[in-house]
Amino acid sequence: MAKILTVTNQKGGVGKTTTSVNLAASLAAMHKRVLLIDLDPQGNATMGSGVDKHDLTLSVYELLTDQASAKESIITNLEVGYDVLGANGDLTAAEVELLQMTRREFRLKMALDAVADQYDFILIDNPPSLSLLTVNALASSDGVIIPMQCEYYALEGISALVGTIDKIHERLNPRLKIEGILRTMFDPRMSLTKDVSDHLLEYFGDQVYRTVIPRNVRLAEAPSHGLPAIMYDKNSRGAIAYLALAGELVRRTDKE
Amino acid sequence: MAKILTVTNQKGGVGKTTTSVNLAASLAAMHKRVLLIDLDPQGNATMGSGVDKHDLTLSVYELLTDQASAKESIITNLEVGYDVLGANGDLTAAEVELLQMTRREFRLKMALDAVADQYDFILIDNPPSLSLLTVNALASSDGVIIPMQCEYYALEGISALVGTIDKIHERLNPRLKIEGILRTMFDPRMSLTKDVSDHLLEYFGDQVYRTVIPRNVRLAEAPSHGLPAIMYDKNSRGAIAYLALAGELVRRTDKE
Ligand SMILES: Nc1ncnc2c1ncn2[C@@H]1O[C@H](COP(=O)(O)OP(=O)(O)OP(=O)(O)O)[C@@H](O)[C@H]1O
Ligand SMILES: Nc1ncnc2c1ncn2[C@@H]1O[C@H](COP(=O)(O)OP(=O)(O)OP(=O)(O)O)[C@@H](O)[C@H]1O
Ligand SMILES: [Mg+2]
Ligand SMILES: [Mg+2]
Hints:
Chain A is an alpha/beta fold.
């Protein structure tokens, strides 16, 4: 049965998509069967995985609005080594349409039940908000990965995010927990980064991944080639860090 | 009559809040009368201006839902030199409530009409999405400032943003135009940055500001002190760049 993980943080630009794409590729490199779901109308995780969002015949929009099944919408046999359920601008309409539907928080979960046993990991990338799309992701998941840029505004917003996760745990999904907090774009030379990182370790302890993702230009260049960093430049510090993260995630999962 | 500017980009983490706060402070330093409106439930522009979002008795939420007037909700006589209409988590509810209201796209514009003549500039910071809150901002504005990190995902999303601005111009606000595209966190050593910047200049020409905001750690440190960079460290490259931007904006405005 797949472990389903939501990658989310309502703060923008903290590395959600970069983490989703590169963690999916790293788990696939460890011979895990992986599905990456893009729940962001920007479609960045779709493009970053080499799938042109403008060419999608079926996307997560059709899945959520009952126009297609997961099996029909999922794209397989990709160069990146993992399967993709893509997104594009159509998804913006899903937000308003979902509001009118019954069991609107569970549309994604109901659709994934049919395919979950075909994967070891399902990762869900999210837009920078705590909207009904993200509620659907959290209601479907075993855990939440929180990418966290070690800066003031990102730290300021984490309590709202933890509050939302607690609410979903109580009302919609009792198995939901924080899988891990991931420090991203980490620049040890900045005292601000170090201060915020110390805050996180003090407050969240073991929930903070030991693996830290450094700021590394290769991670910013790879998406323009539609590739994860381990395929664009496998010896880069960014690619190595995400492989290490995949290792840490698998070790923690095996221990449970 | 105030010039009303929306600062927006649905891509997350591109410097919308940093631009809103520092441009407001720089215009105030030029003795302009400035109001900064925070339309993001994260409340970053509120906190970045030294106003504790948890202490707000009235916020933009009450304004949009007709529970208070602009005059009652605006906070004046602040150390930062400009007035603030703050936001906090309550604003998340406004999104759904606005959907049920008449003239829902014009709630902000109607509220601002009463105070617009008291200011030279009104800046509106937005969340990383193209939602009804941002439609309200665009429907109220003379122009749009688009902060733009020179990286792939940010470039990828700009055509959707320009499309939205065109639609608002046609249907809701015929005076709306792109005021300027601002290159932020600019690191000239990265070839990716240079490539994306060349793309922007080729495609948007004069609409791209000559002023470029460099990556400068002082801009990331200032918010934790609740201050704009020109008050936290006025000789920093970040503070100087935003003063230059204010100068360029005023020159362009005077020429019109
Ligand atoms: N460790 C890193 N080093 C250097 N650049 C990075 C790193 N991680 C992400 N980036 C770049 O920073 C930008 C923001 O990252 P990304 O788009 O993954 O964040 P996000 O949280 O998904 O943003 P959004 O809130 O818009 O969904 C992108 O241009 C990305 O390429
Ligand atoms: N020029 C710069 N140099 C260094 N750091 C910067 C610069 N501009 C912004 N930052 C930092 O980068 C992060 C993202 O900036 P900011 O929060 O202003 O972006 P935003 O577009 O408002 O994000 P959101 O999409 O969440 O609203 C913040 O931690 C900020 O302090
Ligand atoms: Mg993203
Ligand atoms: Mg912001």
